[in-house]
Amino acid sequence: MKWENVAYGFTIFIALLFLEPYLDKMGISYWLKFLYIIVVVLCINFTLSKIKFLQKSVTKKVGWSTLITVMIFVAVLVNLIN
């Protein structure tokens, strides 16, 4: 597992958590919202693949625990903001 995979999982989580409600407020249709989220995730994935630090290996235990911890932290922050 690489840090890139951890960052990619976090990117998907952030895109679904933040973009979907924002696009709902704008009144965008379901299919356009789905397409927009896919494009954002793919663009960020392309950018993440170019960062040298994220190419380093990490153990699965550390990678998964980091991903889960960051997801919980962001979810709590979103609930506090709303």
TrEMBL record:
It comes from Peribacillus simplex. It comes from the Bacteria. Keywords: Membrane, Transmembrane, Transmembrane helix. The chain crosses the membrane at residues 6-23, 30-51, 63-81. This is Uncharacterized protein.
